[in-house]
């Protein structure tokens, strides 16, 4: 309601000015809390971004072979996590995977291999081998059994927008694909 509208309904100009001031103050308060929460969430993710998730010099094929050897001995599945250090959603997914409610499930059930895709110019052949389409975005996961058989590949960019996914969606994915005991 503007000043003119306050006068029209029998209020004075001073009442209208006070009303306009109060409306401005209320609307500024409305954005403060979401802005503060967004800042805190972004700060946490940027703190993770300082940590290199993906070894840019790794031999991804050797890492996969080592993970499969270990998975075979430990009777675990293998998660191939295709992503890049510059990818915000890759760090969001990694943060979700470290949460206390999910980390023990992953630790008990999977060997995780982080595969660097650079600027979509690295390890393209491995992504093709495991049916990961980069045009759908990253992070993208492939699930292997201990023998290396592909059980599932995210072909539709399911985690590409990880920042907007609810945690239960991520947890459900890992619970669904963990090896049966």
Please tell me about this protein's structure.
The chain is of the alpha+beta class. It has seven helices and four strands; from the N terminus they run H-H-H-E-H-H-E-H-E-E-H. It has two domains: 47 residues; 118 residues, 3-Layer(aba) Sandwich (Glutaredoxin), CATH 3.40.30.10. Strand 3 and strand 4 form a beta hairpin. The longest helix is centred in the N-terminal third of the chain and has 37 residues.
* Helix content bin: 40-55%
The CATH homologous superfamily of the largest domain is termed Glutaredoxin
Biggest β-sheet: strands ordered side by side in the sheet: 2-1-3-4
Main beta sheet: 4 strands, mixed
How many structural units, i.e. domains? 2
Rounded to the nearest angstrom, the distance between the terminal CA atoms is: 64 Å
Number of helices: 7
């Amino acid at each position: 309601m503007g000043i003119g509208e306050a006068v029209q309904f029998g209020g004075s100009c001073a009442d209208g000015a006070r009303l306009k001031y109060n409306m401005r103050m209320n609307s500024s308060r409305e954005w403060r809390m979401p802005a503060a929460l967004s800042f805190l969430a972004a700060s946490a993710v940027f703190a993770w971004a300082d940590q290199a998730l993906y070894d840019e010099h790794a031999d991804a094929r050797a890492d996969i072979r080592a993970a499969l050897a270990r998975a075979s001995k430990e009777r675990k599945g293998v998660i191939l996590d295709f992503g890049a250090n510059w990818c915000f959603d890759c760090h969001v997914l990694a943060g979700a995977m470290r949460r206390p409610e999910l980390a023990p499930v992953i630790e008990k059930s999977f060997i995780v291999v982080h595969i660097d895709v650079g600027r979509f110019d690295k390890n393209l052949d491995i992504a093709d081998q495991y049916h990961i389409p980069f045009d759908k975005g990253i992070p993208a996961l492939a699930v292997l059994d201990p023998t290396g058989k592909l059980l599932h590949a995210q072909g539709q960019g399911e985690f590409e927008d990880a920042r907007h996914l609810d945690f239960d969606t991520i947890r459900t994915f890992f619970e669904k694909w963990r090896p049966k005991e």
